[in-house]
What does this fold into?
Amino acid sequence: MHPLQVFEEHRQRFAGECLQRLVLPGADLPLEQLHRLLMLHPLPAHVGFVEVVPVASGEFVGDRAALFIQRVRHGKACRACRRGELRVRIGVVNDHALAERTHAGDASDPSRSVVTANELHLPVGRVAEIELQTLDVIHSLWIPGLSGKQDLVPGRTNHLRVTPRRTGRLRGQCAEFCGLQHAWMALDVRIDDEAGFAAWREHQLRDAAPPASDDARAGAAAFAAVACPLCHAIRGSTAAARTGPDLTHLASRSTLAAGALPFSRATLLAWLADPQRHKPGAHMPRVPLDEARRERIVDYLMTLD
Amino acid sequence: MPTRGAPPSDEARVQADRLAALERRLDATWRDRPGLAGWFTTVDHKRIGRRYIVTAFVFFVLGGALALAMRLQLARPESGLIGPDCYNQLFSMHGSSMMFLFAVPVMEAMAVYLVPLMAGTRNIAFPRLNAYSYWVYLLGGVMIYVAFALDAGPEAGWFSYVPLASPAFSPGKRTDFWAQMITFTEVSALAIAVELVATILKLRAPGMSLARMPLFLWSMLVTAFMILFAMPAVMLASSFLISDRLVGTQFFNAAEGGDALLWQHLFWFFGHPEVYIIFLPALGMVSAITATFSRRPVFGYPYMVLALVATGFFAFGLWVHHMFATGLPHLGNSFYTVASMMIALPSGVQIFCWIATIGSGRPRFATPLLFVLGFIATFVLGGLTGVMAASVPLDLQLHDTYFIVAHFHYVLIGGAVFPLLGAVYYWFPKITGRRLDERLGHWNFWLFFTGFHVTFFPMHVVGLLGMPRRVYTYPAGLGWEPWNLLSTAGAMLIGVSVVLFAANVLRSLRRGVPAGDDPWGAPDLEWATSSPPPAFNFALIPAVRSSEPLWHADGLSGYAGLADDEREVVLTTAVEAEPRVRWRMPGPSPWPLFAALATGVMFMWSVFSPWGVVWGSIPVAIALTAWFWPEPGKASP
Amino acid sequence: MKPLRITGDLSHLPGHGHGPAALGWWGTLGFVLIEGMAFVLGAGTLLYLVPLQPKWPPASPPPDLLWGTLFTLVMLASEIPNVLAARAAKRQDLQRVRIGLAVAIGFGVVLAVLRALEFGALNERWDHNAYGSIVWALMLMHTVHVATDVYDTAVLAALVYLHPVDGRRFSDVEDNAFYWHFVTIAWVGLYALVYLLPRMLHHD
It folds into this structure.
């Protein structure tokens, strides 16, 4: 069969299933012919890029053909990775004055999903596809040092594809007026090398360690007893609500309240005492706590690194 | 006409006596009722135009004060001067005031005053509608400022994106007042647009064919058509928003089949032509000033007209450039990039024509011409940043940053306010009979020019450094501080220059040098009558034989034969301006005011209840019926 | 320099005109352009919303054909008295103008009743979904135009019966017919969108 026909057959076969996957047969197709195939059969506009699925030889994909596809579509970035898993898929779900980031490594393995808040970690040199969804008003994800912005529009999933070239730390900010605290809706972006990113992800996937000291244990108990679990989740404990930011690795972050405050014991205490004073209009209400309880809860939270 | 130096001949004296008698009878016919009754019932376009201009400038000053407050807050990072709720209302009120209560109304107001005079007729078409339009505008502006004073001002920006402006995220009546303010100002703007189309096409003096029509009239004609086609979009959008908030419709609710982007499409379909609605009248003013102060007609008349018409058309094809970051298909975005760049071409043609006019004329650098030069310098810079922003990849960085704030202030202040200030210096003698002080005018210009650039140029830089728009404060340590401080300093300078302008106006009203009919030696018909003009504008309807009637070697002559005991004007054909019909115009009437009050009640009631539209329409219907009802025994008003 | 020499005399000109020769026509034209644009944008909104739903209408049967079609037929028929009144006005035939306007008002009353019945047969509420919202919005927009048109005509009829009538009043009658034509034509488009389009899409 002519490669074009095989190509078309497989494209149609997978079209309904997963639009982001294209499996190309024919290990021996030269680059130019592959290129022409892809030009003749353009992928749907919203497909970020071609995901290459490694399959056992004996099926219809050869490694060499797979690599050729990557090069055609993505130029330099592709050379950075020749292994199976090439895609870092990131969903950005925005809530009012809160940003929740979901990292999904493998689309096929949800247990390797990481949930964090107001931080974005990316591996250098790899194409990252960011899916943007909002639960409330229109926001806009903008990391000026990395790429142009893209809005988060209710009822739609927008996409932003970025390829970080250098490791480092960048600042992102919401770029569409979204309410009272639009000014303080920032994003901490860290670009790590492969090893650093993998290590960070492994760390984030772990549940929170049980509190070691007495103070921390008292804090954990107080946390579970007052209003906190109504909104927050800490994996490894019984708190599992999704309204507020995930706190499992709170102490690993460098800012609080979407960049409104730097993270430290002192600022955490101050924030807990009266969130509305620091960020009027934030969704976190003032939880009535006496100072001792507050100190214990913060002791516990500081162990969540 | 009597030759200078020779004593008037007998024939000339008889002629002059007859004219004086005619003027007395016309004055009796066209005069308003005395005192307060006259003030409320006038349908004289000059009186209405004057109060419209003054009211618009009051909103300009108020909007500017709001901006000063914003700049004070942004002078320092993490400043606690103004909190987020107040700041969000400040910038929403600033934008709404400037766009809806100042920029469009002032341009229409200048047209209301000048167009009938420049066209050589005695009043604007539909004079009572003109009065109605002013009252409706005033009520809408007062309503939103009272709401603001009561902490119910708009908080979602002048553009009021949904879902932020939806009932779920914008509780209370703030957005409802905003949306109804839109209704007030759009009704008043549309009314004037209809009057302008009718006046410019049907009331021009005999002989003023379209090919001889002054460029200001062309720019107002194109603007009026743009208003007719653009404003319905925002009326529809704001009505949908009000009904989502008031009666639970789902236009913008994605969960029930609506779409947040529907708002943006409807709003920007209006919003982009809106800025050209503000800009085109200013281009007409620039042409008028440039011709007079270069002492030659504007170079390239046909190209100037084509440029105006082309701009008017293109303006409707650009709106998606406000939405490049929303996730629309790429190919569609490219079309709007092309259109947004193309619209620079006709404006460029006009700039070159004006430069050629000044360069090949004998320029006098009086204050009006200084403002024209300031306009050229500033608007061109704004146009350049506009072409930059038209490119999608660049816009995805620039959008919603202070770079865009800089861009649109350059094109709006550069492109509209500079010409407007020049126009005030130019036409003040005609409107008031006195000249503004030239020395103060030069100070005014240079302070305003300097203040403007010191305020807005740094915004390009701070936008490129990553500062987004609509933020009540910003973190320290990002390098944004010095630029913000500079902008605030510039804003103070602008404030000083506006105070100087107001001082010049107030002083000159009392003590300005009296202007004659034609202090500048200008070509157009408004200078062929006294300063200020009599109630009837012209005793004889001018006979126009060239594009520069007052520069025509033969001197100006006119037509007799219109009644002097009735308010009569002559209707001419739309293209060639051949006289066809003697048309009787209505006189003073209280019904426009009553109808406006009834309209105001209806609109304000419907902020609170949908039944306001139903029951409120009854007084409106009564007022409108009384408005049109002729006096007993007469056929028509 | 004021115009001081008399170069001509306008007193021979008539005091009224027909159609575009009269000023009132231009006011009507302006209004037609504005409202026409509003209808175009409303129709555009409807067409924009169609692909956003799984089907159109998303959750209800299309509006019942009976009252809408009857309304359309009566609206088209109402053109007759208006055209007759306009032609009579051009000829300055007062008697026929009076009859034409009175008959037009009669049609107007029938239209009001039919429109009320239409609203009851739309089969979707304005607050259920975006489809209901836009259909109600278009219907209400048009209803307001019909109501104002009939009211205008009633006032005009009162004037031609109770007041002296001159050439300008006759040209007012022609302008009123112009506006009525606009309301009819706008309805034809809206009828297609509200009643026929869902049925065309349903057959897919």
Observations:
- Chain C touches chain B through 59 residues (CB under 8 Å).
- DSSP finds five helices and one strand in chain C.
- Helices of chain C lie at 23-49, 65-90, 94-120, 130-162, 167-202.
- The longest helix of chain C spans residues 167-202.
